[in-house]
Design goal:
Helix 5 runs parallel beside helix 19 (495-504) and helix 12 (285-292) crosses helix 13. The longest helix is centred in the N-terminal third of the chain and has 19 residues, at 78-96. This protein starts with a helix and ends with a helix. With 759 residues, the chain is an alpha/beta fold. The protein binds ligand MGD (2 copies) and molybdenum atom. Molybdenum atom (MO) binds at residues 138-139. One ligand MGD binds at residues 139, 178-179, 182, 184-185, 187-188, 215-218, 221, 233, 235-236, 238, 317-320, 322-323, 356-357, 623, 625-628, 631-632, 741. One of its GO terms (cellular component) is outer membrane-bounded periplasmic space. Residues 620-743 form the Molybdopterin dinucleotide-binding domain.
Length: 759
């Protein structure tokens, strides 16, 4: 840490300003502080904390899950709780095999390196013989499967697929940002954010004269600076726009065919598709305009602007691929960038996820070191993470993903720590029914989240300020020490201590702890960083300072130009694709014979978008982006999140013109519904959002009414949780990613009776 004022600030404040969720800033010099640590303090003693180990009464009397979510709980001792958990794990593993234990346990709980709930429970469960796991993320599950086919295996990691922000600031002259820069999204990062710099980098690029063109349904995704323009488009139609732009480049004679033939394979097939030689439909500005709602002239002008740019960058936010056929925009973005010919040049080509979180594109040495070892999982069964509902619905049935034929495991026990599937999964009414199928659900939680309420055994966990930890994003320069500042609430224990007690029941506690106290573990993990970064101070020096920042001067400068080595010498440095080149046509994917994903990028209409027949009944496209004032469902009940509710509910945003047409006014309580469910929300009328779209951020705690029903007969959700409306459909059989953004709804005013039912 360079400044002594910072060091003293840390030593005086860290005890009471600990790490919060993964965006909390404790750095007084942060250019754009994130969520506040103060709110975490408010949560610490809030009535939503779980005070003691709890067991559901119906589970005890053997109801096999029938009363799950509707039943009462009773407190039990830690000794009894850990015995019940260990016995049940052994029973299920013994009777049904370890693959009947599902512990994918996806989620963003805890920023710390040691108290990382998923690592702790997986380390424990491996000592019980293993479990069925999950792969990829809700964040960019479609991209993580598609991009390796197109660019090679390393490009499944979103960070590999974006130029450094310093290169954007220095070289990019036109950035086409699909999805743009939602204010607040760069507040967060896995591992925490010490300095929120993504926005300042963007500003630096624009000040230097970069033209930023944001294409998205909401002008609020574009910063209000000079040389920034916003073009609205219908949600989930970006693939059509990009194919239409390629068509216009061809018509202008501006396609970079030298680049295509030197570095790509399959561009001929894609060119034939765009020119309509395969099916008679020409993909040009006029075609794309029909689908996207943009004007043909605007698309033509955009094609010319990109063709004339010295260093254009096609940037795409993760949100685009969190939709049906979400694999396609990823492929189309690489294709458009290849047609423009600047891939591999500083600040040019394609970027995936710049602005979705703070870490993507940070020009720093990755601050990576080994975490808590999870051991070895002898069970091979692994599901695509957003396949949770299908796994429960189709136990034992075969399915296809990324060309593999797999079988959904027959799950009898679900174990979750550090995530909230009743926040993050789609079609929560369906999930609620399916969730009753397993024999047992065990959850570790600091608070009575919706998932804890849907469990059989709930084990209370500390919040970050009740334990000491090390934190830091792997794409940041700073490691932070966060000492415990208060006693654990009630009987809460750390995930580590809970798992240690459970492994004690099978005589494995010493193996689990590896002979270390929690304090020893922190020193041990820190030593892993020191081994990679010898300039770091001693552990004692680190904890005394509170934070240490890597000295970038001590290393060679970080230059992050994706694909530069390949473009320099494609023969010596081929990509790890089958052809060694950028695959704009993939024989591998084509050979899978999938209906929903062919051999080259293509636009196909999904079931739900503004152009589908269903829009006659459900005329609004629902987008459910990330919430500004919290991290997903965390901190929903406190601070700014609680203050920004209306009628105790999340606020939906709709174009002013739509509100007027429906006779709705600002601040009114509304109801959103479709064939899957309904929820209530507040209403804000917007002058930036395009008509026909309604935005309801994620994260309001799932609160089904006891008495009131949705038009489809499911319980009315009262807090404004969009996931009672979203469809539980995979992106496609290729990736089976989360497709939350493909969702149509209708909107009406709530009735007086509905309004009176406050969560
Ligand atoms: N409709 C819609 N749905 C979406 C999305 C969308 O765009 N639209 N986005 C998706 C995406 S990208 C994501 S990443 C997911 C996020 O989904 P999640 O990551 O599941 O959401 P969180 O609310 O962060 O859940 C973290 C949980 O961990 C708990 N927790 C915190 N600290 C600890 C700890 O130390 N130990 C334990 N055991 N628990 C802890 C918190 O109380 C909280 O309940 O949501 C997905 N869902
Ligand atoms: N404050 C805060 N920040 C967060 C999080 C949080 O919970 N709170 N969560 C973090 C996580 S886990 C993730 S994965 C990232 C997610 O980062 P993203 O996936 O990039 O973000 P979203 O919030 O889903 O959507 C961003 C914008 O995309 C636009 N958009 C939506 N659909 C389309 C489309 O089809 N086409 C185009 N062109 N634009 C579209 C919307 O207008 C929206 O404002 O955010 C991270 N940042
Ligand atoms: Mo995410």
């Amino acid at each position: 840490m360079a400044h002594s004022s910072e060091a003293s600030w840390f030593s005086t404040h860290l005890g009471t300003w600990p790490l919060g969720p993964q965006g909390t800033s404790i750095n007084p010099h942060d250019p754009a502080p994130g969520l506040s640590g103060e709110e975490f303090l408010e949560l610490a003693s809030h009535s939503v904390r779980v005070q003691a180990p709890m067991v559901r009464r119906g589970w005890r009397s053997g109801d096999n899950g029938a009363g799950r979510g509707a039943d009462s709980f009773e407190p039990i001792s830690w000794a009894e709780a850990t015995r019940l958990v260990a016995d049940e794990l052994q029973r299920v593993a013994g009777e049904h095999g370890n693959d009947a234990i599902y512990a994918g346990s996806y989620g963003w709980g805890s920023a710390g390196r040691f108290h990382h709930a998923q690592s702790q429970i997986k380390r424990m469960l491996n000592l019980f013989g293993g479990f069925s796991c999950s792969e990829h993320s809700y964040s960019y599950g479609a991209g993580a499967v598609m991009l390796p086919h197109v660019l090679g295996a390393p490009f499944g990691d979103t960070n590999a697929c974006a130029p450094g922000w310093d290169q954007v600031a220095a070289h990019t002259d036109v950035m086409l940002a699909l999805g743009g820069f939602r204010p607040g999204n760069t507040r967060c990062d896995a591992g925490g954010v010490f300095a929120h710099t993504a926005r300042s980098w963007l500003e630096k690029a624009c000040r230097r004269g970069m033209t930023l063109i944001v294409v998205s349904p909401d002008a609020a995704d574009a910063p209000a600076w000079p040389n920034v323009t916003h073009i609205p488009l219908r949600p989930t139609t970006d693939t059509a726009l990009m194919l239409g732009l390629i068509g216009e480049l061809e018509a202008l004679g501006q396609g970079q065919h030298d680049f295509l033939s030197r570095y790509c394979t399959g561009h001929e097939a894609l060119a034939r598709h765009v020119l309509g030689e395969d099916d008679g439909t020409v993909r040009n500005a006029a075609w794309a305009a029909e689908i996207t709602g943009m004007s043909p002239a605007r698309i033509e002008a955009l094609a010319r602007q990109l063709a004339e740019a010295r260093r254009p960058l096609i940037a795409m936010s993760w949100s685009l691929q969190r939709a049906r056929f979400g694999e396609q925009p990823c492929w189309a973005a690489v294709s458009l960038a290849a047609w423009l010919g600047h891939i591999g040049a500083p600040g040019g080509g394609v970027a995936f996820g710049l602005g979705s979180v703070n870490s993507v594109g940070q020009p720093v040495r990755p601050l990576k070191a080994p975490g808590v070892s999870q051991g070895i999982n002898p069970v091979s069964s692994c599901i695509p993470v957003a396949g949770l509902g299908d796994m429960l619905a189709s136990a034992g049935q075969p399915y296809r993903v990324n060309g593999d034929l797999r079988r959904w495991p027959r799950v009898r026990l679900i174990y979750w720590a550090g995530g909230n599937p009743f926040h993050h999964h789609q079609d929560l009414n369906r999930l609620r029914d399916l969730w009753k199928r397993p024999d047992t659900v065990i959850v570790h939680e600091p608070v009575w989240s919706a998932t804890a309420q849907q469990a059989d055994i709930v084990l209370p966990v500390t919040l970050p300020q009740e334990r000491s930890d090390i934190s830091g994003s792997s794409n940041d320069r700073t490691l932070v020490y966060s000492p415990a500042g208060r006693e654990p609430q009630g009987q809460a224990l750390t995930d580590h201590a809970i798992c240690a007690r459970i492994t004690a029941a099978i005589g494995q506690e010493e193996v689990f702890r590896d002979g270390r106290s929690e304090g020893d573990w922190l020193a041990y993990l820190y030593a892993g960083y020191q081994a990679r970064f010898p300039e770091l101070p001693s552990f004692e020096g680190f904890t005394a300072k509170g934070a240490v920042t890597l000295d970038e001067a001590a290393s060679a400068p970080v230059v992050q130009t994706p694909l530069a080595a390949f473009v320099d010498d494609p023969v010596a440095c081929p990509l790890s694709t089958p052809s060694g080149r950028i695959e704009l046509y993939s024989a591998t994917i084509a050979a899978m014979g999938l209906e929903e994903c062919g051999g080259h990028p293509a636009w196909q209409p999904p079931e739900e978008w503004l152009g589908s027949p269903l829009a006659a009944r459900y005329p609004f496209h629902l987008l459910s982006p990330q919430p500004l004032h919290r991290l997903h469902s965390q901190l929903d009940k406190v601070g700014a999140s609680a203050r920004h509710k209306q009628h105790g509910r999340e606020v939906a945003v709709m174009a002013r013109a739509d509100g007027i047409a429906l006779g709705l006014i600002d601040g009114q309580c509304i109801k959103l519904f479709n064939d899957r469910g309904a929820c209530l929300a507040g209403l804000a009328l917007s002058d930036t959002l395009m008509p026909g779209v309604i935005v309801l951020p994620t994260g309001a705690w799932f609160s089904p009414s006891d008495t009131l029903l949705a038009p489809n007969g499911t319980p009315l959700e009262r807090a404004g949780n969009p996931n009672v409306l979203t469809a539980d459909r995979p992106t496609s059989e290729l990736a089976r990613g989360c497709a939350a953004n493909s969702c149509l709804v209708a909107v009406t005013a709530a009735t007086a009776e509905e309004q009176a039912d406050v969560p």
